[in-house]
Amino acid sequence: NNSRYLQSQQERESSARSYPRRLPIVISEAEGIYVRDMDGKVYYDCLAGAGTLALGHNHPVVIGAMRELFDSKAPLHTLDLTTPLKEAFVDELFASLPSSLASRARIQFCGPTGGDAVEAAIKLMKTATGRRSVLSFHGGYHGSTHAAMSLSGTLGQKERIAGLMPDVHFLPYPYAYRCPFGVGGSETQELSLRYIENVLHDPESGIVPPAAMIVEPVQGEGGSIPAPSAWLKELRRITRERDIPLIVDEVQTGLGRTGKLFAYEHAGIEPDAIVLSKAIGGSLPLSVVVYHERYDVWKPGAHIGTFRGNQLAMAAGLAALRYIKEQDLPERARLLGDRLKEQLWMLAEHERCIGDVRGLGLMIGVEIVDEHREPDRLGHYPAAPALAARIQQECLRRGLILEVGGRHAAVMRFLPPLIVTEQELDDIVFRFGESVRAARE
Ligand code: PMP
């Protein structure tokens, strides 16, 4: 059953298709954390739309909200004209922000994907500051549109595109395990900050005053790497002192995944702009930028587009956001994430190919290494992308869908829906352990 559809996909879809290459399954049903393929096989979905599905597939609260919209006479499409639903969505979102920002926040609805909102945030800050360069981080990921890809700190697809957005400067992210300064531990963040302060201070560094800095509070595609709170706090201090707008990309971290509603809350900072997508649409396409009113400089029509603020996605997203808050799912993500990390570290005691386990809440990464090669000067073995790919295949055979990411394509990424239970997580770790064993042999 699966193979007929896969064959058709190969013949008709763009060669850019990515996930289906490593996850050659055809999904016909989904509920909660489970998906079922055309052959009737059931999988745990720990990819969950790359972290989109905070409430899992087809959550009754989300489906109910969409059904209610269908059964009402409310419009499904209005460009950016206002509706009571849009008003309620903005009310709920603003009520979720720190009060100092909430009272002075503005929102821009963007195209349907995270990359669209990144584009909007950068354009906005360029307009507001009149400056042109942007600061971004090594290993960061911000999307696949032209400018968003220019800001992404890994080469990958970028290599093949000439003439991306110029004037992007990449700064060292505090990735302690593969420390860019070769020191590791807490010194990584210290040196990263010193580097950033120095290049911003030095008129000869080639960095002219930037229009913005964009950062992920936990690098997602870069390999589930949390930025330490102290580092983010300092970053906020530096950007504030130098009058550089700080854009926090919460596309993957937002809506409870990391143990707080927004990941920047861990550091107690207030960003100038927050980019949201994925979970904000409750499993439907939606993206927004929320920013401080002082940057509200656009003239009418400066940022347009047909699909801005899809009504169905707002209904789904509003229901999901309310449910996440009512059920305190961020706290649940924190507790379950700590438990998951603990279990994965226990597994690492027997499996030396697990080099690192890290993450915040239910955004966990396991870095797969080759323990038969020379370790680096921190004593860490080189990344093992081929082994990670085999583990992913073994997981798939055992009914577990995991994403592989990271700068070296060697990080197994756990992004389960926040409604996952302890028993399910135990079973997921068990299947993962079996898969690691099988892939090694
Ligand atoms: N920013 C971050 C942090 C992301 O993780 C992603 C998607 N993985 C994006 C931006 C781009 O979002 P989209 O794929 O919806 O364009």
From TrEMBL:
EC number: 2.6.1.76
Alphabetical keyword list: Aminotransferase, Pyridoxal phosphate, Transferase
Cofactor section: pyridoxal 5'-phosphate
Keyword Cytoplasm recorded: no
Pfam families reported in the protein's UniProt record: Aminotran_3 (PF00202)
Domain of life of the native organism: Bacteria
EC class name: transferase
Pathways per UniProt: Amine and polyamine biosynthesis; ectoine biosynthesis; L-ectoine from L-aspartate 4-semialdehyde: step 1/3
UniProt record similarity statement: Belongs to the class-III pyridoxal-phosphate-dependent aminotransferase family.
PANTHER family: DIAMINOBUTYRATE--2-OXOGLUTARATE AMINOTRANSFERASE (PTHR43552:SF1)
Protein name: Diaminobutyrate--2-oxoglutarate transaminase
